Amino acid sequence: MPTANASVVDRENLRAGVDAALARHVADLRETARVISADAAPLADAVESMLAGGKRLRAAFCYWSWRAHGGTPGDGREEPVLRAGAALELFQAAALFHDDVMDDSSTRRGLPTAHHVFADHHRATGRRGAARRFGDGAAILLGDLALVASDDAMSRAVAGLPEPVAQAAHSVFEVMRTEVTIGQYLDLVAQTMPWGDPQDDERRARDVVRAKSARYSVEHPIVLGAALAGADEDAIAGCRAVGLPLGEAFQLRDDLLGVLGDPSTTGKPTGDDLREGKRTVLVARALARATAMGDRAAVDALTRGVGDPALDAEGVATLTDLLVRTGAVAEVEQLIDELCTEAFAQIEAQNWPEPARGTLIALAHAAVQRAA
């Protein structure tokens, strides 16, 4: 992660506090695995590896929203907020383990994905059965373990808090988990649909963006922090008004980086989203523009190439050129700007005190002005 972004997340030792909570969960998992069987040790190693590379943006949005709504550093509720941040990070780890299997991604944050690591170990040790199935199965179970740990972290976070605060916070977390799971399914469905009306394609793409990423990346963490501070419904509504457009901008930036980003920075090969057939707003806009221009060759190239797992570097370059040449990249950049303008206007409308207000603004910039 760029240093500027890291400095925002590191303010007031937030990262250290969240990392300490995560380390306790990994240690608990490692001990449980040790007691059950020595063969289970690689599971704790894989969870630890996945957690080590996180940006901690979700945890930071949660913490600084808590501060914005009256939270005081060092008081009895700070540790629960840090634990809630750890719960968000564990949930993200669970989603990434599963997402990598579903997309058959080869790398994550510059390292081999878990299902490939376990499959390679299967081959190297001469085990029986299909290495690919073993790797996929292990990664699915890793996601399940991280999901169980996230629930445990959230339960520990709210234990001892006033009952209305605990219920409100847990409700946010439960809704978030359900939405992301449904969003993953919608993503799968979208990739199976034939290309049709460009407006319908973009509608599906934005449904996926909101359910799978936007709300859980920004909106729900901000709302969760406010709920942990005991914020009222009006304050919660203000958080949602900030979080949703900012979360959409966050994911749209991710979509651009998936095509135009530097692999040495993003940690993923360029063009993976194109090979996987991701039905992004970017691709939908390119098809809409090519159709409007009557560029049949561009339409054919996009509909054939997006979703082709055998797409080579030249094919990726051709599609990337089309995304730029049709004006789709410029349109998505403009959409990001519009969403950010909306989000920052909503921040201005909130009566958030300093230093929370300034830090949340810095976090918002870090979420959308990034290279990874």
UniProtKB/TrEMBL annotation:
<keyword id="KW-0460">Magnesium</keyword>
<keyword id="KW-0808">Transferase</keyword>
<protein>
    <submittedName>
        <fullName>Polyprenyl synthetase family protein</fullName>
    </submittedName>
</protein>
<dbReference type="InterPro" id="IPR000092">
    <property type="entry name" value="Polyprenyl_synt"/>
</dbReference>
<dbReference type="Pfam" id="PF00348">
    <property type="entry name" value="polyprenyl_synt"/>
</dbReference>
<dbReference type="InterPro" id="IPR033749">
    <property type="entry name" value="Polyprenyl_synt_CS"/>
</dbReference>
<dbReference type="InterPro" id="IPR008949">
    <property type="entry name" value="Isoprenoid_synthase_dom_sf"/>
</dbReference>
<keyword id="KW-0479">Metal-binding</keyword>
<comment type="similarity">
    <text>Belongs to the FPP/GGPP synthase family.</text>
</comment>
